[in-house]
Design a protein that fits this description.
With 51 residues, the protein is an all-alpha fold. The protein is built from 1 helix and no strands. It is rod-shaped and about 75 Å long.
Length: 51
C-alpha cells in the first residue's frame, strides 16, 4: 500500500508553526514590556535633547 507523504508533511509544518507561535508569544510576554520601556525612555531622551 502506498503512503501519501504530503499529508504527513503538512501536519509536521502545522505543528512546527504552532510551536513557533507559542515560543514567540512567550518571548513577547517576557521581553515586550522591557522593550516598550526602553523605547519610551529613548523617546523621552530625544525629546529633552530637542528642548
Amino acid at each position: 500500500m502506498a503512503r501519501d507523504e504530503r499529508g504527513l508533511s503538512t501536519v509536521e509544518y502545522v505543528i512546527l508553526l504552532a510551536l513557533i507561535a507559542v515560543v514567540g508569544i512567550g518571548v513577547w510576554q517576557s521581553f515586550g514590556q522591557t522593550l516598550i520601556g526602553k523605547v519610551n525612555q529613548a523617546n523621552t531622551t530625544f525629546q529633552t535633547l530637542g528642548e
